[in-house]
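Homework help thread (please don't just give me the answer)

Our assignment gives two proteins as sequence + structure token strings and asks us to describe the second one. The first is just a warm-up. Here they are:
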Amino acid sequence: MEQYIKNINDNICRNIEENENDRGFMSQNILAQLRNLLDHICVKIYVAQGGALDDNEFKNIQNAKSYVKKNGNLQFLIKFHEFLLISASHYTFDPDSSERLMLKYYEYLLRTKALMKQQFGLDILENLYMFPIDTDPAFKEYYKAIVAKIDSLILANAQTEERRFCIDKVKPLFVNGKVYYEVTFSPSNDKAGKFDRIIAFTHLELPTYYSVFLRLTTVDITVDGMVMPVNLIVDSRVAVRLCKLRNFSKIFGAPVNVSQNKEYSNLMTYLQTTRLSLTEIMDFPDEEFDGFIDNIGSKDHADFPPAVKVPKPYQKQHRRQKHLTLSIAKAQQQDYQETDICNSPIYPRKLMPEPAMQTFRQSAVCVFLSGT
């Protein structure tokens, strides 16, 4: 497996070296190799963790992807693979489109390179730094000064504060062959506006689906003789607002009095460690979904509701449910009425019989809410 990875890597590195002055053509050639590279990397990780290989190569790849998907620190590989499936797998784009895709995937390539070095001591994409990135020279020194502070920060000596925020935007930064992030966020309340937004920098991959508690500190950097303060994020944890969960449950006619109980804490921990969204959890196979419920549920909690999966005939409504589930990430607190949603063009109630509608309502809430 390692030899396959080396062969693909040699092809990519040679394309970078020989086509440095033609970024479009270089990008076309690299994109054609990325899915193969990622498939074999996933299989190598799977085998290294004790996975058994099958004679069927496709089955090996599927098993490897299933394993990788369950590991929070490897979620970026699955996300990268999904991007490639809908873009570069079966198409050859024109040079301009290929350049834009490569710029989008550059973050994932750097993270994949770092992962292979850390876990296996394997050097890949050695000359990726030669791929031309359009960075404003005026910002290079600014970002380098920030990164120096991030790398040298001694947390024990830092004065920090922790508050709940909503992530508005995450911009990747590439400095010294590593990935950092410029994060824009706002206070997680109903009155926050665009003038309340804050910018901070971090090396952490932040969950962006829902509200988070961010631990912040402020440091001074010097650029061109000027001293300026900069916010750094030193830690984060998922913390969905309770009011959003309560209002979400009202949409389906099953209002739930959500509190910061054991189930809520377990759910937040699960979302943090796996880095999955609720919409991704809703797509779990039945056995895996039941395991999720067991993870967040309490056996001695009599009021914890059973998990209900959406029947196959109602997958169209399931997609609408997923859209509503995802919407709690950014939606402000509102007094939703069941009839407003269920009778709207977005969510037509008449398409689903009443018994199935009741099951459907329950499934949206029981996926993650406690019945207390």
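The one we have to describe:
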Amino acid sequence: MTDQERMEQERFELERIEKQFARCKYPVVYEEIRTEEIMLKMTDGVLLRTILLRPEVEGQVPVIVVRTCYPNNDYIYRATAMENAGYPVNADYLASCRFQPHVEVDEKLWGKRLDWYRKWVTGTNESDAYWNTGLWGLLKEIPSRVKVPVYIGEGWYDHHLGSAIETYRRLSDECKKKSRFLIGAWDHNFNVAVEGHQGEHFENDDILRAFYWFYQLLVEEKEPQGSVDTYIIGDDSREVFCSRGRITEKMS
């Protein structure tokens, strides 16, 4: 992706977010925001680049913590391995993406064998030891330990939908009672991806829905009601699974 294309994508995303918040039912409370960047030290000594966005106000305010593997929306994918090889890799990114077989790209284009990368790309079954030990094994266990309410926003056309479903499945029953899992007609970037079906309610407004959820939890201090909310492709309706049972809602 060129710098120009990246700027256009960021402008499109910003406009989409602004349009959603323009419909927000809650008024803006703080106009001025202070931005601060720090290197936050973890308990194991690792420093994480952390960006703080705080309203210009004294005292405590509700906090939302966002963890991301996309610093400044940089696009990583195969670049993850290139940038974490432990030495400078000067190979062309697109050429690396196209190289076949993938398992040999480290030696053939990057100049050195990376055993961890090879285990990564050849561990194609979730039962493989690679995905069930060390860090990956820990990540699988984390959802079952979560006690706070969780909001999961997904799309039927997102390539991460499977892992999102698995994450929700691993939450404890107690956590599910106060968590929401929303699946809409979107792809990974929350763009409407439905083809071949008519509908008037493809709204990719997950940002606003998530905001309402956090507002209720953090500002109004109301514990959310657990639910699984799914858009029904072809019927232009949604089904909600909650404590009241299964509810089908025609959208108007």
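TA reply:
I won't write it for you, but here's a hint about the kind of observation we're looking for: The radius of gyration is 21 Å.
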